[in-house]
Write a structure and sequence with these properties.
Layout (H helix, E strand, L loop, with lengths): L1 H18 L5 H9 L7 H9 L2 E3 L2 E3 L1 H5 L7 E2 L6 E2 L14 H16 L5 H11 L7
Helix pairs in contact: 2-6, 3-6
Length: 135
């Protein structure tokens, strides 16, 4: 009886992160309408770590946001703290489409020197919405 209760508890805790994933489907639908195709966690991870030359040396998304999406980051230039990117930690992170677009615009221009494409946004958002234990 005790083992069964522990197993049920363990299974319930293991499923918990997925239950807290953000509803990114409206944003992904917008990116598909703008010409993007299927989105991939793996492609988003590649984009997250893609290095580009910057004024302070090579940088990528994780340079400021960190490689652990469930942990806070820090802006390279300003030193300002950045809240964790994982929606499992910051539940309202991707609930406001205008905010998501604002930050994609700023961060893509600063990191990559250009705006992100709808495909890149969808792949990155899919990656960010994945469980932090897989990132």
């Amino acid at each position: 009886m005790k083992t069964t209760a522990l197993l049920i508890l363990a299974l319930g805790l293991g499923a918990q992160p997925a239950a807290h994933a953000a509803d990114i489907q409206p944003l992904l639908a917008d990116y598909r309408a703008a010409g993007a195709g299927g989105f991939s966690v793996q492609q988003g991870a590649k984009l997250w770590t893609r290095e580009v030359a910057g004024d302070q040396g090579p940088r990528n998304c994780g340079s400021c946001h960190g490689q652990r999406l469930d942990q806070p980051g820090e802006h390279l230039r300003t030193g300002k703290p950045i809240e964790p990117m994982a929606p499992q930690v910051a539940a309202d992170r991707y609930t406001d489409p205008a905010k998501v677009e604002k930050w994609f615009l700023r961060n893509c221009k600063w990191t990559w020197g250009r705006e992100c494409t709808p495909q890149e946004k969808g792949d990155l958002l899919t990656y960010l919405n994945a469980s932090p234990t897989t990132n």
